[in-house]
Design brief:
Number of strands: 8
Helix content: 25-40%
Order of helices and strands: EHEEEEEHHHEEH
Largest sheet: 4 strands, parallel
Low-confidence stretches: none
Number of helices: 5
Shape: globular
Length: 201
């Protein structure tokens, strides 16, 4: 088991993100960094009939260049909740474990969190609970400089870079020929393999 790891906050994070947590002794999530657009902080990818599909939580940025992640508010003027839940349902309702986990995630997504960090934290707590991953998760109170923590994955787990990480091969009911792709949200693995998900990390 690894020691402490440093991660960004993430919306329905990719499988690699959860795999890093599963190997860690302690998890520190950065909340003091300035918000970065087009990252897993507010987006995820699911596997639809046409391939990977982006789901993005709209946020109220203001002067986003200097806005800490902890202050980023969700923009509810857009129907993102219905879009995300509809997309997940369309992609995974035929999956064997969709029925067991969808309502848990749906309840959190519809709960009306004001801040993105709180939404992400609620989803992460639920996912780790489902997977029975027991690890201490805490949040930064000051920005952690690069290389201050040995296992710093804040800027390596990103949709802007090709990931070398691949989970164990599992069957996608909706797309059985696709294999296990990098960058997909943990919900893809969860709906497909259920309580065995941790074995594929």
């Amino acid at each position: 088991m690894a020691g402490k790891i440093l991660l960004t906050t993430a919306y329905l994070p990719p499988v690699e993100y959860i795999a890093r947590i599963a190997e860690a002794g302690e998890v520190l999530i950065e909340r003091e960094e300035n918000y970065i657009k087009q990252s897993y902080r507010n987006r995820c990818y699911i596997l639809s009939a046409n391939g990977p599909q982006l789901l993005s939580v709209p946020v109220l940025l203001g002067s986003f260049h200097k806005t800490p992640v902890r202050e980023i508010r969700i923009d509810y003027s857009k129907r993102w909740q219905q879009v995300h839940l509809g997309a997940m349902s369309a992609a995974y309702r035929s999956s064997p474990f969709f029925i067991y986990y969808f309502e848990i995630l749906e309840r959190i997504i519809l709960s009306g969190h004001e801040f993105l960090l709180d939404l992400n934290s609620g989803l992460l707590k639920a996912i780790l609970g489902i997977l029975e991953i027991k690890v201490k998760v805490s949040y930064t109170t000051d920005f952690v400089r690069i290389e201050e923590v040995d296992n710093d994955f804040r800027y390596s787990i990103t949709p802007k870079k090709e990931t070398l990480y691949r989970p164990g091969k599992y069957i996608h009911v909706f797309n059985p020929g696709r294999g296990s792709e990098g960058g997909l949200s943990i919900v893809d693995l969860l709906f497909s393999t259920g309580p065995d998900s941790a074995q594929y990390l």
